[in-house]
Amino acid sequence: MNFTIFNFLELIGSLGLFLFGMTMMSEGLQKVAGNRMRAILASMTKNRFMGVLTGITITSVIQSSSAATVMIVSFVNAGLLSLAESISVIMGANIGTTVTAWMVSLIGFKFSIAQISIPLIGFALPFIFSKHDKRKSIGQLMIGFALLFMGLDFLRMNVPDLKSNPEILHFLTNYTDMGYLSILLFLGIGTLLTVVLQSSSATMAMTLVMLNQGWISFEIGAAIVMGENIGTTVTANLAALTANTNAKRAALSHTLFNVLGVLWMLIVFYPFTKMISWMIDGIATDPATQPLYALSLFHTLFNIINTLIMVFFIKFYERIVCYLIKDKSSNDEFSLKYISSSMLPTGELSLIEAEKEIEHYCERSQQMFKEARTYAINSYNDPTNTNLAQRLEHYEDASDMTEIAIADYLHNLVASPTSLDVKKSVRYYLYLTTEVESVCDRCFNISRTASHKVEEGIDFTEEQTNDLNNMFDLVEKQLEVLIKSVSRKSMEGENQRNIFHIEKEINELRFTLKVKNIDRVNKGTHSYNAGIIFMDMIEECESLGDAITKIAKEVRFN
């Protein structure tokens, strides 16, 4: 047998080139169309059938169902898609991925596309060195496309020649004539290959090469294709490991959908493959290309029929995954809800998760302010506040860790190849995150001052309590405008003016209360210590308002 280690490494290297080209092409397309994909998903997923169409479109464009599914899971993680919407898009992604098989069947084996790959890379090279982000991404897309077909061409050339190595053919024939057992065996091989390669398109290309070389029959190729449908779901499930509950559910629904599809296909496997062979016999006359077209048609029809059946059971899938994966999240804790280290597909898409996480961070800071206010006002006469001091201290520690986690995520985002617009947004978001943490610091300072009040046995007078509530009301209004601005990504215009107007009211009230506090101490209305603690809380509220105003002045959204 002439197949050496060197030949094996050439085969693996060819596969690596194919995978690298596909990844590069996919990333380039996501960068070129990332924001458009976001708009498409937002407008086209309300209806289940439109969701399927959206999944087909996205996967056809980026040529990777794994990348598309990870993207969909990241959208669910960021709260841009509901669970039901994501299931319909994932179903469409299964159909979209069949484009790869047709591309390889119709183009890859007709002529050596590697002959035009080198000129294509030469044409794309100036784009790569362009300072314009979109041109650079287009260059990446073209080079990825060229490398993908170079890898396919090398893969075809480096597959062992069965005529020279009959032992391999003999090995395969031992397992191809065992009826359904062979189908199940090669289904498992297809699943394993896809899990290892992390790309159903790469496994599909290998299957088409083996079919083209005569290694396997059409039926065995169809079994491998069914295995690919199961194996491709592993990528999204890995990506969702550290994501939120709904993202995990979306990834699991992909697995359930594909597994159930394979189960019903196994029941009608032989009649279905015979129907495909009959259809191809009537269309293609070249015996060399018939098996390739047959496998591509099987892949397409299987996924289309499976989707047409399962699209009516989206609610059923939703109930199943909700039952299997319980929601263990807590709304009372500072915790990362949207961003996760395992999902960083591209800058444009990762930025969405960062935006939602910062919005969540702002909401938690508002919750912390409300609890600090409760503690400050009621700490002397409300027995339910005994644990609030410890709770607010925990909030402070958790908010510090949240700030670090968001900042690390944003720094990693900037470190990856991404557009200037994304880098500009990251700069604003880093500033916003820092200032939100300052808000949390001020809330903690208010609670710490309230603890001193309790320790010294000081009770505020009714006038002091009313004045303090007036100040808290103004700060709470500012926080509400801030959260509305962040959620709508609009820190200019009316929102900005509202924040500035409230800041002016806070400053005027602080000055008024400072004068009143001195007057009350002189009159003996309350003690000197009570006046100090009262003004400390007022000053912290004013500092908190300053932090929000700085955000309104400095932060801009694209």
Please provide a written account of the structure:
By secondary structure, the protein is mainly α. It has two domains: 5-324, no CATH class; 347-554, Phosphate transport system protein phou homolog 2, domain 2 (Methane Monooxygenase Hydroxylase, Chain G, domain 1, Up-down Bundle). It is built from 22 helices and no strands. Helix 4 runs antiparallel to helix 15 (290-310), helix 5 (98-108) runs antiparallel to helix 15 (290-310) and helix 12 (233-239) packs antiparallel against helix 13 (245-267). The protein is elongated and about 105 Å long. The model has no long low-confidence stretch (mean pLDDT 78).
